[in-house]
Amino acid sequence: MDKKICFIGVGPGDPELLTLKALKKIKSADVIIWTDSLIPEKILDFSKEGTEKIKTSSLTLEQITLVMIKKFHAGKTVVRLHDGDPCLFGAIKEQIEILKKEKIEIEVIPGVSAFQIAAAYHEAELTVPDITQTIILTRAGGRTCMPEKESLKDLAKHNSSLCLYLSARHVKKSQETLLQFYPPETKVIVGFRVSWDDGWTSLIELKDMEKFSIDKKLIRTTIYIISPAISNSQNRSNLYNPSYRHLFRNK
Ligand SMILES: C[S@@+](CC[C@H](N)C(=O)[O-])C[C@H]1O[C@@H](n2cnc3c(N)ncnc32)[C@H](O)[C@@H]1O
């Protein structure tokens, strides 16, 4: 039995994007509690025979943590699977707080987040010198309110690379806001269930973001990356510039 409950970021969906550490934990689990609405079932194929698999999409926080506590105290190795990286919109804090009150130790294993796989599919660097050196990971306000200082308008003012999670339902308002700060031709990577068997990505322009999303009926599991850094080949980094000296190349 593992003496901790492990929260595992399983990445965006493709099992080959699991870390070795995550894979090892999944293989050894007696009980897997998993976010079935956001994780493809084939991630569970790595589990051993007889592993109990509990879906969380219809459970409350109290029900989820109660089952974790009971199984753990029954001597089972319990793992909790989250999509992408657990630190991003994972709602792990509230689970961990309850488990810690029960004196249960926790381990968190990071995973590849949705924005990373979407950028990778388009060979995109989101931090290009003189264009932007910043990536904002955020969401459009919906039923979960945004803190006042983090309105999309305030974030868009930076003109950085901006990744929108959980925002397909709010694409109309998001596009309107973003167009106040980004040129209409700014490139947007849109990804639906990226790296799932039925997933895809597309490169569009900001001015088409709403129409595209409606045409594709996007509501869930969609990532948007709005970035002035995409499709710009003019700028190069200092790191590989012959005129730039650093620790590993000082001549
Ligand atoms: C509850 S959040 C969790 C994010 C996750 N922790 C991560 O790091 O990617 C769920 C949102 O993440 C994004 N997402 C997660 N997996 C995705 C995928 N495979 N393709 C596109 N978007 C994804 C979508 O915006 C989805 O609505």
Automatic annotation (TrEMBL):
InterPro entries: 4pyrrol_Mease, 4pyrrol_Methylase_sf, 4pyrrole_Mease_sub1, 4pyrrole_Mease_sub2, Cbl_synth_CobM/CibF, Siro_Cobalamin_biosynth, Uropor_MeTrfase_CS. GO terms for molecular function: precorrin-4 C11-methyltransferase activity. The keyword Methyltransferase applies. It holds the Pfam family TP_methylase. Pathway: Cofactor biosynthesis; adenosylcobalamin biosynthesis. Keywords: Cobalamin biosynthesis, Methyltransferase, S-adenosyl-L-methionine, Transferase. Gene3D superfamilies: Cobalt-precorrin-4 Transmethylase, Domain 1, Methyltransferase, Cobalt-precorrin-4 Transmethylase, Domain 2. GO terms for biological process: cobalamin biosynthetic process; methylation. Residues 4-198 form the Tetrapyrrole methylase domain. Its EC number is 2.1.1.133. Belongs to the precorrin methyltransferase family. This is Cobalt-precorrin-4 C11-methyltransferase. The lineage of its organism: Bacteria, Bacillati, Cyanobacteriota, Cyanophyceae, Synechococcales.
